[in-house]
Amino acid sequence: MKKKACDHIRAITDVKGPVRRECEECVKSGSRWVHLRTCQTCGVTLCCDNSPNRHATKHAQASDHGVIASAEPGERWLYCYPDDALAGY
Ligand SMILES: [Zn+2]
Ligand SMILES: [Zn+2]
Ligand SMILES: [Zn+2]
Fold this sequence. Notes:
Blueprint: H1 7-10, H2 24-29, E1 36-39, E2 45-47, H3 55-63, E3 67-70, E4 77-80, E5 85-88
The protein binds zinc ion (3 copies).
Residues 23, 25-26, 33, 46-47, 51, 53, 55 line the site of one zinc ion.
């Protein structure tokens, strides 16, 4: 993981936060999650790679939405899947 902003991350001026602190997909299926991430393209909040369903990664791969933000309280970072880049904001 590169600790450096890429062009996708730099293009984000308003970071989208979670509307509700829950994984939309896990809620539907009754699953649990560990941490939450918010897609910066469409604003959906989904679960992280430590969660059994890894919905945020699946969403990024299926929809071509490359950048997520942490939706955890107190965490302020963005991650870009195509560039494997992580940056604070
Ligand atoms: Zn990028
Ligand atoms: Zn989930
Ligand atoms: Zn999205």
